[in-house]
TrEMBL record:
The keyword Transferase applies. Its EC number is 2.2.1.6. This is Acetolactate synthase small subunit. Belongs to the acetolactate synthase small subunit family. Residues 9-83 form the ACT domain. Catalyzes the conversion of 2 pyruvate molecules into acetolactate in the first common step of the biosynthetic pathway of the branched-amino acids such as leucine, isoleucine, and valine. It comes from Neorhodopirellula lusitana. It comes from the Bacteria.
Length: 173
């Protein structure tokens, strides 16, 4: 039975030193792995950063990515988050055409339904912030699209394994 294609969510705890992001993304690209989503940020330890990324492929692709990451000296730990019970978030900032009047009221109602917030108001546009699971953010984009999107930016997915739910699918050096 052939492996099925999945979106794998990986977390790599890395040393917080210059060039780590370039090294890791370059290594993955040179081996033909595409990064679908990437987020990097500080952790509770100032010496470490967490890279959370999504790669698409079957289980053998996931295993190859993990093996390649584990070879990198600055990578401390790799965790396949998607094999655990986890909480994930994606953040969206979006500018939408919103002339004063009934259209702006419709947009405000849609933002409320998605539990977002309007973070900036201009004469003809509003800027909206939405956070949540990737499918929620995507659903909002689809619903707001008819109003006219002038600019859109998203973070990569971030995720954490729920307390007490870690499988042994992580590798620590």
């Amino acid at each position: 039975m052939p492996n099925t294609i999945h979106r794998h969510l990986l977390s790599a705890l890395v040393q917080n030193v210059p060039g780590v992001l370039a090294h890791i993304s370059g290594m993955l690209a040179s081996r033909g792995f595409n990064i679908d989503s990437l987020a990097v940020g500080e952790t509770e330890d100032i010496k470490l950063s967490r890279m959370t990324f999504v790669v698409v492929g079957d289980d053998s692709v996931l295993e190859q990515v993990r093996k390649q990451l584990e070879k990198i000296v600055t990578v401390v730990r790799v965790l396949d988050i998607s094999s655990n019970d986890f909480v994930e978030r994606d953040l969206l900032l979006i500018k939408v055409s919103a002339p004063a009047g009934s259209v702006r009221a419709e947009i405000r109602e849609l933002v409320d339904i998605f539990r977002g917030q309007i973070v900036d108001v201009g004469p003809e546009e509003v800027m909206i912030e939405i956070s949540g699971r990737e499918n929620k953010v995507q659903a909002f984009i689809e619903r707001i699209h008819p109003y006219g999107i002038s600019e859109l930016v998203r973070t990569g997915r971030i995720a954490m394994v729920r307390s007490g739910c870690t499988n042994n699918n992580d590798t620590m050096k």
